[in-house]
């Protein structure tokens, strides 16, 4: 069976060997075991259902929440000489009917549909009347309510699915799944433990960087100048930012397009085509862009401001380097980014949801302040089963500077937090440590604390950064609510007792210059 799979790989796709995890996933499906494949973006998930689909009898149904991706997938299959189509709301009723009829006659090996298609009695009766090879859930994290991109309609097809009398083997594929999401998918579509294929999330060809304290527009301009012919995406947090940055860059003569939900469908389509076909080198976009973009030679993804959570960040940044060649992922951080994300989270009507989102946002903020390897930080966040070495190329791994013992300073901060009643955020704490005569400091009588002004030799900004560092490293926790209320942790107790040193790599000025300015 696996020999046939290898023959298909060579004959249809022209590839000589399988990538990590592909063979295993294919083998499980061919042995009729429901299978979950967790592989990074660009890992080659499509082949994991396409090859079984080609070797088994009957038609494969691929369920995807991304209507925009279906056409590309189908075009790619057709170009290999494989009979494939899609049925979705972008087609006229007549076209839909025609394709259903062709499907009934067994004309297709692959049919792509959106989850809503399972509400259609015609579709259900059609697939019950033909031999099916498999049913695949692409972007399977969307069926889990623990996922960051939960689609209720995706989840609700599962019961319908189990009423199908000729139910074939099921397969789920995703690039972003925490252990929670994996458990959820496994239970929902009944995947035995032994057929969960998880290759981990590491993207060895990507370099992650955090850039702080630079004018963002200047940074981008310099960056694009240094990489004139390379394709890349710049994500902004708002449409307004996308508009103005694109305007600015075009005026400067850069080949830059834009993409956001405020544009007409035609404009968006055109921008996407221009980018995919290398008519424009850079696209400035909101997070509306990317789902379903199949462009393998994206060399960089810049985040113009911090996104809402690590899941979105990794998915967006992960659009770089899908061809396996190096990709650069730079995040431009400024503390105002946090307020915008909080504001967006506040729009949610559910208190429960808000709490969750704040916690996720905090993990994102910590990412911007941590001194550990950025790739490792992300892998730890996803509880990647394959613990790895530091990547050696992120902005933390390559930071040049000297390790300084900051135990005493940490103790001052921690005891100040304690004296302030563990009810306030980094900003006010920094003011107290600095000895500021701010109104709020006086209002709470913090100018009478013994820690008032004990770190006056630092600037407020430096103090805020140091507090963020302590938070990112787990010496402080910001609490769970809307406004961070710094609290001590078990770790901080050991520091206060003097049982644990706190060390921090302090960037030397020349090194700072290099790590911020050099693209590589
Ligand atoms: P994913 O869906 O996991 O992001 P894709 O299925 O789109 O990834 O595959 C990414 C790229 O890798 C595609 O261009 C695909 O043709 C290529 N690819 C997949 N499997 C192999 C393989 N075994 N050998 C070489 N290239 C492969
Ligand atoms: Zn690293």
TrEMBL record:
Keyword Hydrolase: yes
The reaction(s) this protein catalyses: Couples ATP hydrolysis with the unwinding of duplex DNA by translocating in the 3'-5' direction
Keywords: ATP-binding, DNA damage, DNA recombination, DNA repair, DNA-binding, Helicase, Hydrolase, Isomerase, Metal-binding, Nucleotide-binding, Zinc
Helicase C-terminal domain span: 218-365
Co-factor(s): Mg(2+); Zn(2+)
One record GO biological process: SOS response
Example GO molecular function: metal ion binding
Gene Ontology, cellular component aspect: bacterial nucleoid; cytoplasm; replisome
Residue ranges of domain Helicase ATP-binding in the record: 26-195
EC number: 5.6.2.4
Enzyme class (EC, first level): isomerase
Similarity field: Belongs to the helicase family. RecQ subfamily.
Listed name of the protein: DNA helicase RecQ
Full protein stretch here: 1 to 520 of 713
């Amino acid at each position: 069976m696996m020999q046939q799979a290898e023959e298909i790989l060579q004959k249809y796709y022209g590839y000589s060997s399988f990538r990590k995890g592909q063979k295993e996933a294919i083998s499980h499906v061919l042995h009729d075991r429901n299978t979950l494949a967790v592989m990074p973006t660009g890992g080659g998930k499509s082949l994991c259902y396409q090859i079984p689909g080609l070797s088994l009898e009957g038609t494969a149904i691929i369920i995807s929440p991304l209507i925009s991706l279906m056409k590309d997938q189908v075009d790619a299959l057709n170009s290999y000489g494989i009979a494939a189509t899609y049925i979705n709301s972008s087609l006229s009723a007549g076209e839909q009917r025609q394709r259903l009829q062709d499907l009934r006659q067994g004309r297709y090996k692959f049919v792509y549909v959106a989850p809503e298609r399972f509400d259609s009695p015609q579709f259900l009766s059609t697939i019950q009347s033909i031999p099916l090879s498999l049913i695949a859930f692409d972007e399977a994290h969307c069926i889990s309510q623990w996922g960051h991109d939960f689609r209720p309609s995706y989840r609700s097809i599962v019961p319908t699915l189990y009423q199908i009398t000729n139910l074939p083997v099921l397969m789920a594929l995703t690039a972003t799944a925490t252990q929670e999401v994996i458990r959820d998918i496994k239970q929902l579509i009944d995947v035995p433990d032994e057929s969960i294929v998880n290759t981990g999330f590491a993207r060895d060809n990507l370099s992650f960087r955090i850039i702080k304290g630079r004018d963002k527009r200047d940074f981008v301009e310099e960056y694009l100048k240094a990489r004139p012919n390379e394709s890349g995406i710049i994500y902004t947090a708002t449409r307004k930012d996308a508009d103005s940055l694109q305007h600015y860059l075009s005026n400067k003569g850069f080949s830059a397009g834009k993409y956001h939900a405020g544009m007409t469908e035609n404009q968006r389509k055109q921008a996407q085509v221009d980018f995919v076909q290398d008519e424009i080198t850079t696209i400035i976009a909101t997070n509306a862009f990317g789902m379903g973009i199949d462009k393998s030679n994206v060399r960089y993804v810049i985040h113009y401001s911090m996104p809402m959570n690590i899941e979105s960040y990794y998915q967006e940044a992960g659009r770089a380097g899908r061809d396996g060649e190096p990709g650069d992922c730079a995040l431009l951080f400024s503390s105002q980014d946090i307020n915008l994300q909080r504001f967006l989270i506040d729009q949610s009507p559910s208190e429960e949801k808000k709490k969750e989102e704040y916690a996720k946002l905090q993990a994102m903020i910590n990412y911007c302040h941590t001194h550990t390897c950025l790739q490792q930080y992300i892998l730890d966040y996803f509880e990647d089963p394959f613990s790895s070495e530091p990547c050696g190329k992120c902005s933390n791994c390559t930071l040049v500077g000297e390790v300084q013992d900051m135990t005493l300073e940490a103790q001052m901060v921690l005891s100040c937090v304690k004296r302030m009643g563990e009810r306030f955020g980094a900003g006010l704490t920094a003011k107290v440590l600095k000895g500021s005569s701010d109104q709020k400091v006086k209002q709470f009588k913090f100018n009478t604390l013994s820690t008032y002004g004990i770190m006056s030799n630092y600037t407020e900004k430096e103090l805020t950064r140091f507090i963020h560092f302590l938070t990112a490293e787990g010496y402080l926790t910001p609490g769970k609510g809307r406004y961070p209320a710094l609290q001590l942790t078990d770790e901080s107790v050991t520091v206060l007792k003097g049982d644990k040193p706190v060390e921090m790599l302090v960037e030397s000025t020349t090194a700072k210059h290099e790590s911020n300015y050099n693209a590589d």
